[in-house]
Amino acid sequence: xxxxxxxxxxSIQRELDRIDARKVVVxxxxxxxxxxxxxxxxxxxxxxxxxxVVGPPRPPAPVLGQFARxxxxxxxxxxxxxxxxxxxxxTWAPSWHSGSYHLISRQIEAxxxxxxxxxxxxxxxxxxEDLVDAALVRFRVDEPLDxxxxxxxxxxxxxxxxxxxxxxxxxxxxxxxxxAEFARIQHVDWELLPTGSADRVLERLASRxxxxxxxxxxxxxxxxxxDRLGHDGFILGAGKFLGYFGVKFGDRLVALENLEYGNALYxxxxxxERLTQFSRTELIKRRDPSVHRLPHLRGWQSAIRKLxxx
Length: 310
What we know:
Blueprint: H1 10-17, E1 23-33, E2 46-48, E3 51-53, H2 66-73, E4 75-78, E5 85-94, E6 101-110, E7 113-116, E8 123-131, E9 134-141, E10 145-146, H3 152-167, E11 171-174, H4 179-186, E12 190-193, H5 198-208, H6 213-227, E13 234-237, E14 244-249, E15 253-258, E16 264-268, H7 272-275, H8 280-286, E17 291-295, H9 300-309
Antiparallel strand pairs: 1-9, 1-10, 1-11, 2-3, 4-7, 5-6, 8-9, 12-13, 13-14, 14-15, 15-16, 16-17
Helix pairs in contact: 2-3, 5-6
């Protein structure tokens, strides 16, 4: 039976267009805190003495969803893209006044069925960088995919859905990328949005943690305050800086929030991209004059206005 044609989603196609390599893998890099590591227990992650530890590669547990179950058990697909064909079906019917049963068969027109064996794919995890009570972790479906393969689009779609089901997000990378290269990619992970994009920032934050209404309420309040300060654009973090958001004031000052870590806003000077590589503890120890920590106590809105004018 000819394989069913698969059209790749535009988001995946855009990522493929940026990769020159013939072989690719599906992976994702994300920041995971010790408090939330239990979510990834099925993939072998756990916390030990304030650090996140990963286990050997393993198939995702079937409880994670449809594609995890298909990966382990295989599945049958009804080919509605093909013409219907004759099929014989049989059922047992009770025989009249005998207490026994007899077999009844009949012909029907039905779509062909395509049987897919179990793929038995494993997902591996690797800690790219230890953070304070967290880690930057790389997840990967350990199956390099060749673009020249007839089943490439179907395999890439399956692997993307499998990883997204397991960790929430999936992207396409060169299959030969090392963990060191994955880590370097994640250090360029700030997205700049123009002024007037407050609603877009809130939408992104909501999509990352849709179940925490209180945190989104606090984020909305703080973004509205920042938006009234005459800034030059919003900043959203990704990868290592997932959860960070803020605004930029020209080239001299950046104000950043992270609702995951404490109740303070940080203002960074011109070298903000380098300074944000440090943890909160390291920033406090450094006592860098170009870093201002502003707790969200009464009057913090007035305090930030004074610092911006300074």
